[in-house]
Amino acid sequence: MVSFSMELNKSHQITSLSIPSKINPINQKIENELNRLSNREEASLSASESISIGVSGLVELYGCINQALSLPMTQQALLLRQHDKHVGELLKGCSSLLNVCSSIKKIVLQQGVVTKKLENSLTQRESLKIGSDVATYTCLRKEVIRKARDILPSLNLLNSEVLGEEDCQLSTVIKSLRCVSIINLSVFQSLLVFLSIPVSKPKRSLVSKIMNKRRGKCDSGNEINDVDMVLHELVSEKSVNDEKLCFSVKKLKALADVMEGIECGLENICKQLSETKVSLINIASF
Question: Strands, E, within the chain: which ranges?
Answer without folding.
Answer: none
